[in-house]
Write a structure and sequence with these properties.
By secondary structure, the chain is α+β, with helices and mostly antiparallel strands.
Length: 858
């Protein structure tokens, strides 16, 4: 930079830098404009994608809602209008945009008259099958079949649709025929409803229903109607879509696209700020085009970006250009001035050397390696070396207190411009040592770090200090001892007051002090209150072992005085009278010739409670182990009994095969079969219990009728019922619940088996169910047996616990009801037993009437 020789050149260079900065500012501004437009378009694209996902998710939710309604018709041969309204109300209980849910049975021409009369009998006196022709409802002409709107929920606002033959509308006829052919959900093209007075378009979602007995027979359709304007508003609100976007939903399945909803007309396509984005979406065998458009000027971020673009980028660019130009101006001005100053410094160096030589203190100039670079005459005089020899020496050769490594470390730690004052000892050429005070400053000369040291001989000063030290030393030691005593006192008081354990200090029977933890533990408001109370108020009259607190306390105190300390457990009483356990440690202290007892205690009520719970748990475990042992003993007997029967009659049959008649052999086989069946039941119970305990039992949940399961369970017990001449009363009306048919049959069979065991010959067993709160179904099995002992009624569902009737007779293996409880709990239900007032027992379990999620079942 030696070509910069004048201020004029510096100013010209700074002006060029400023102009270059302005040019770069203009380029950056154009780049930011493009970047901000891209950011606004990115915001729009993100919101458009949110719209596509929201519509897709909402439509799939509505299709799933319709499929749930279809499941009701698939599981039930006959669904009444009230049942339909109940299920439809449940399906529409959450927020939705549904215009109506409808049931459309397929009616043949021969059934038309009977069907119209049946609907009129339900209270719709003016009902008849209507057709939609030329925008009006007219009586439907003759046709082979009709697809009639029969059930409608909600009826309010949809009355005109009741009785409409959907097949009379060409576009809807094509849609329902497609749904029947594909056997799946199909959505219609945009359609204006017969009950609609405006020009809103609706989407009609059809689900065909086929007969269970004849899969080829079409029973009808369930229909979900969405008014698309309302649906779009619902999606905007429920999924929090941006209000400044306009949306459009079109059906593009055919060559001519038809719009459900189109909000784009409010925007000017010719505007340079107009943006549009679209996406295809397939649902119900129809292709929909979802699109969103926006005027970028309506995006909330637009105003912020415009504000930034209008002012900040240009101002920032001008400011930065100005700062850079000023920096260039300052930098080259500094270089120019530095060159001038360097010449001036060379002139000053000679003057400083003269001042150093005239100083009364010694002067060394050393580098960080300790090499002496310069000395004055006073330094040579103190050390006794000539100047030439001093300049060839290292500082470590004259330093007696610090090693060379320590001197190097001190130099490295010293910062440039920093001044330190150090006392040390130097060595003369003669070998004698003398104390010195060194004032050292570090600075840079020609790029090299050096330390300038002014050295003063302290021999005279230290002699004077030694004389004055003797008198002050004694005072300092006394002050130090007094301070140590005060610190020890403060430390003890801090430990005493801040301890989390309670502490009493007593002398004889009197309390002389206590800490904050003591007040909190006993529940007193102030220390003054505690110190006024006698010691006996902190304990009950008797300890838990029956000994009086006064006598036991005196005995513990004597142990402490004898051994120096003593630890024990003690029952105390709080201010409100509540007793609590504490761990107590007594310590004997000698204070100013007085014997003080230090009482430290800790509340152990929770530990005592935990010990009690552990003992109780141990007792329960021993009882469970005893029950298991009794169960195993009983099981061994139960298994040996049928095995013995099988082996005995098999041996008889084998030995008498040639001589016995067919009737007797048949009896042997019958007895072998009954013993084997009994053994199989025992083994199945053991296997089911093991599967449930390890979580390996499989369940197949479905929404289905319960009457078939009850019939299956009764069929399994038919022979036993006939043998004891028992009558069973069971419900005949259908009832839908959500359960695993095989496992619930197992539960009912087990409950029936128990009821049969305890019912008297010729008695009656009743099975019924009732709805509990609209969500759960209670299934009840009642017998006329002796009932269950009240002490055992809570434990009959536990493993290894057998049923104990009031007559004291023990029956069963102890696993059947436990397996029932595990199965019902897996259904998210409950099971319990009750004794009936008129005699007998009622066993009750609950099942959900609604489909449960997998996480609920888990």
């Amino acid at each position: 930079m030696h070509w910069i020789r004048s201020n004029k050149q510096v100013y010209l260079l700074s002006a060029l830098v400023f102009l270059l900065g302005l040019a770069l500012t203009g380029m950056r501004y154009n780049f930011l404009v493009e970047k901000n437009n891209a950011a606004l378009e990115s915001h729009f694209t993100d919101h458009a994608q949110s719209f596509y996902q929201a519509v897709s998710r909402a439509m799939r939710n509505e299709v799933e809602r319709l499929e749930s309604l279809a499941a009701v018709f698939n599981f039930s041969e006959q669904v009444s209008r009230n049942d339909f309204n109940h299920y439809a109300q449940v399906l529409t209980s959450s927020r939705h945009a549904i215009q109506a849910l409808e049931w459309l049975p397929v009616i043949s021409h021969s059934q038309r008259h009977v069907y119209e009369n049946s609907v009129r009998d339900e209270g719709y006196k003016q009902f008849s099958i209507m057709a939609w022709q030329n925008g009006e409802l007219v009586s439907a002409p003759e046709s082979d079949t009709y697809v009639v709107v029969d059930y409608v929920y909600p009826m309010a606002g949809n009355e005109r649709a009741l009785g409409l033959d959907v097949a009379s509308i060409p576009s809807q006829k094509q849609t329902i025929e497609q749904a029947a052919a594909l056997r799946e959900t199909v959505i219609s093209p945009p359609f204006q409803l017969v009950q609609e007075t405006g020009d809103q378009k609706a989407a009609l979602i059809y689900q065909p229903i086929f007969s269970d007995t004849n899969p080829a027979e079409l029973k009808g359709y369930v229909l979900l109607i969405l008014r698309m304007d309302d649906f779009l508003n619902f999606v905007k609100q429920d999924y929090l879509l941006s209000s400044y976007l306009s949306y459009s939903i079109k059906d593009v399945t055919d060559s001519l696209s038809k719009a459900f909803v189109d909000e784009h007309r409010a925007h000017s396509v010719s505007s340079g700020h107009y943006r549009e984005d679209s996406s295809l979406f397939t649902v119900g065998n129809r292709d929909w085009e979802l699109s969103a458009c926006v005027d970028l000027r309506q995006i909330p971020e637009y105003e912020v970006h415009q504000l930034l673009l209008n002012k900040r980028p240009i101002l920032n660019g001008v400011a930065i250009s100005l700062l850079v130009a000023l920096f260039v101006l300052g930098y080259f001005r500094f270089r120019l001035v530095s060159q001038q100053n360097r010449r001036h410094l060379e002139e000053q160096r000679g003057r400083y050397q003269q001042l150093i030589e005239q100083s009364s203190d010694g002067f060394y100039l050393v580098n960080c390696d300790g090499d002496i670079l310069n000395v004055n005459q006073e330094a040579c005089k103190m050390l006794g070396y000539p100047r030439s020899q001093c300049l060839s020496m290292n500082l470590s050769q004259i330093e007696a207190r610090y090693t060379k490594q320590e001197l190097d470390a001190m130099c490295n730690e010293l910062k440039v411009g920093q001044k330190v004052l150090v006392q040390s000892i130097h060595m003369r050429k003669s070998g004698s040592e003398f104390p010195v005070e060194i004032s050292a400053t570090k600075f840079v000369i020609d790029g090299q770090e050096v330390v300038a040291c002014f050295v003063r001989d302290l021999t005279e000063r230290l002699t004077y200090r030694a004389l004055s030290l003797d008198n002050s030393l004694l005072q300092a030691e006394l002050k130090k001892y007094t301070q140590e005593l005060q610190e020890q006192k403060n430390a003890f008081e801090t430990v005493f007051e801040k301890s989390t354990d309670g502490i009493f200090l007593t002398e004889g029977r009197h309390i002389i002090n206590c800490n904050e933890a003591t007040l909190k533990t006993f529940g007193y408001a102030s220390k003054e209150r505690v110190l006024k109370l006698p010691s006996h108020v902190f304990s009950p009259e008797y300890q838990p072992d029956g000994e009086t607190s006064l006598r036991k306390g005196n005995r513990m105190l004597k142990q402490c005085l004898k051994k120096g300390s003593h630890a024990f457990e003690w029952m105390n009483v709080r201010a409100d009278g509540e007793p609590f356990w504490t761990d107590v440690v007594l310590t004997r202290l000698e204070l100013y010739g007085r014997t003080i007892i230090h009482i430290a205690f800790r509340d152990i009520s929770k530990r005592k409670q935990l010990q009690s719970e552990i003992i109780l748990a141990k007792d329960n475990a021993e009882k469970a182990n005893q029950a298991k042992s009794e169960f195993l003993a009983n099981m061994s007997h139960e298994i040996r009994t049928p095995l013995h029967g099988i082996l005995s009659y098999a041996n008889l049959g084998e030995s008498r095969f040639e001589t016995a008649d067919r009737q007797k052999l048949g009896r042997y086989f019958s007895l072998i079969n009954s013993s084997a069946q009994r053994l199989l039941v025992l083994l199945n119970e053991l296997l089911d219990s093991a599967k449930l305990e390890t979580g390996k039992m499989d369940f197949h949940f479905a929404l289905q009728d319960l009457t078939g399961v009850i019939g299956q369970a009764l069929a399994e017990q038919e022979s036993t019922l006939l043998e004891k001449q028992l009558t069973v009363v069971s419900p005949s009306s259908a009832q839908v619940a959500y359960f695993d048919a095989f496992r619930v049959t197992q539960v009912l069979a087990n409950l029936l088996s128990n009821a049969i065991k305890f019912s008297p010959r010729g008695g009656r067993i009743k099975i019924d169910y009732q709805v509990d709160g609209g969500q759960y179904l209670q299934v009840r099995v009642m017998d006329q047996g002796p009932g269950i002992d009240e002490e055992s009624i809570e434990a009959v569902f536990d493993k290894f616990v057998q049923t104990y009737p009031k007559n004291g007779k023990t029956l069963g293996t102890g696993l059947g009801l436990s397996i029932c409880r595990e199965i019902i709990q897996a259904h998210h239900g409950q099971i319990w037993a009750e004794n009936l007032p008129e005699g007998g027992t009622m066993l009750v379990f609950t099942l959900s009437m609604q489909t449960l999620r997998m996480d609920q079942l888990d």
